[in-house]
Write a structure and sequence with these properties.
By secondary structure, the protein is an alpha+beta fold. It is built from ten helices and 21 strands. The chain has two domains: 222 residues, PmbA/TldD fold (2-Layer Sandwich); 218 residues, no CATH class. The longest helix has 16 residues. It is globular, with a radius of gyration of 25 Å. The protein starts with 7 loop residues before the first helix and ends with a strand.
Length: 457
């Protein structure tokens, strides 16, 4: 077993002694995670795996001056406390010296009077094991409920993450975050007229930060219902449709468009919408308003301060389809001569006035996406595409509902958002990735109705 060789204070001292360094940022994450894998065994729920994991992630970003006037080098590295410190710092500095960036500096002064934000569910923070037991009982009831579809398996992950953020200006910022993840799988089988037995499985997942945003029973019911529909399907007819998407998809599409409101895009010559531009040129549906909110209760990216040391406040980016703000961190704000603003937080989308039921009746034929196979969104081109894993086609002329599977859907935000409509009901969504210490969050309409979307059968 590896042993601890050094701690954070020793790391900070070592960095401060390195004269080559112009600046540095440290992000130290400790986490405790409970993992439980559940399976169906005839009439009972059995535990396939049950474990507790403790770990840490430590990343450093170093900045060094280069011989060229007005240029600096930068590099980010993951550090390991079980390995000698000096060689790791040497490697980070050497990597930075091989790069070439326009010079910039961390902001002077330390953030003060920071708000107390709600980032960790209090029940999870107090008793993670108790919450695990409680949710397991709820999953058992939801999974073993009598229905046509068969429960196959489930996963439940609960974790608490403690973050410490330091930089060379003397900033210290600490906060905690809770995370919840579940995965449910149901299958459905039936006998064809030929006597052949066929079956298919449907898998559903959900992330959340707070227990109140984590409807286990609803998720399992939805998964089972969709599993029952997987064998009574047909491919879609090619054409253009009004398409209903849920909050998971809507959040990805709006976040992609919001990326064009950042100083980073402007500096790199990527698609950029400046203040005064229309978010969607010529839009005449529900006109979109967007706020980047780092203060949202239990948001996936709720923080008081950025890693660079800038206080983060809610930032209105779009008002009624008109761009009114730009997201800029210290680095790219300095490059472009702009005052830094907010770069962290959940994307908050204004509600519309429709209901999902009205959306299904909005045209002679309306397609509702239940699940994509793998949605691909290009934030620069503003395009999106995916195979259709499962959908419903509302044929309002024939007063029928058909289950759709297969075929592909593709679209352009610039075109398909022009007459978009949204529900009045709003929901919270969160997503986390192993590739990043932070998360991405959305708060907004539960459903959106896009117009004129291309579908190929």
């Amino acid at each position: 077993m590896s042993t601890l060789r050094w701690n954070i204070e020793q790391l900070k001292t070592a960095l401060e002694k390195r004269e080559e360094l112009k600046g540095w940022i440290l992000i130290h994450e400790h986490f405790k995670r409970r993992e439980r894998y559940l399976m169906h065994d005839h009439t009972t729920l059995t535990m396939d795996q049950d474990r507790e994991v403790h770990g840490e992630n430590l990343r450093v970003r170093v900045m060094v001056l280069l011989p060229k006037n007005g240029r600096q080098g930068e590099a980010s590295r993951k550090l390991f406390t079980s390995e000698p410190l000096a060689p790791q710092i040497d490697a980070a500095i050497e990597a930075a010296l091989q790069t070439d960036y326009q010079e910039w500096s961390l902001p002077e002064g330390l953030p003060k009077n920071l708000p107390q934000l709600k980032t960790a569910d209090p029940k999870m923070a107090e008793d993670l094991e108790g919450v695990m037991k409680e949710l397991t009982v709820r999953i058992s009831g939801a999974a073993l409920k009598a229905r046509k579809a068969k429960f196959n398996s489930a996963e439940l992950f609960l974790s608490l993450h403690d973050f410490e953020v330091y930089n060379s200006r003397g900033m210290i910022y600490r906060y905690s975050q809770s995370r919840i993840y579940t995965e449910a799988a149901f299958s459905f089988s039936k006998k064809l007229s030929s006597g052949e037995m066929v079956s298919d499985e449907f898998l559903n997942t959900r992330w959340a930060v707070a227990l109140d945003d984590f409807p286990i029973e609803g998720l399992f019911e939805e998964t089972a219902e969709r599993a029952e529909q997987t064998l009574d399907v047909q491919k879609p007819e090619s054409g253009r449709y009004p398409v209903i998407v849920d909050a998971e998809v809507l959040g990805q599409l709006i976040a992609a468009q919001a990326s064009q409101l950042s100083a980073t895009n402007s500096y790199h010559g990527l698609p950029f919408l400046k203040q005064g531009d229309e978010l969607f040129a010529g839009a005449k549906g529900d006109l979109v308003s967007i706020t980047l909110d780092p203060s949202l209760d239990y948001g996936a990216d709720t923080v008081a301060v950025s890693e660079q040391g800038l206080v983060q406040n809610p930032l209105k980016l779009v008002e009624q389809n008109r761009v009114v703000g730009t997201s800029a961190d210290q680095q790219f704000g300095e490059y472009l001569g702009m005052k830094p603003t907010t770069v962290r937080g959940a994307v908050v989308l204004s509600p519309g006035s429709m209901t999902r039921e009205k959306m299904t009746q909005a045209a002679p034929r309306v397609l509702e996406i239940l699940q994509f196979s793998s949605l691909v969104v290009d934030p620069n081109r503003g395009t999106f595409s995916s195979e259709i894993r499962l959908a419903r086609l509302f044929d309002n002329e024939n007063k029928s509902v058909k289950i759709i599977k297969g075929g592909s859907l593709s679209g352009s935000l610039k075109e398909n958002m022009l007459e978009a409509r949204f529900t009045q009901n709003c929901v919270m969504r969160a997503n986390f990735s192993a590739l990043s210490s932070g998360g991405s969050g959305y708060f907004g309409p539960e459903f959106g109705l896009l117009s004129n979307v291309s579908v190929v059968g």
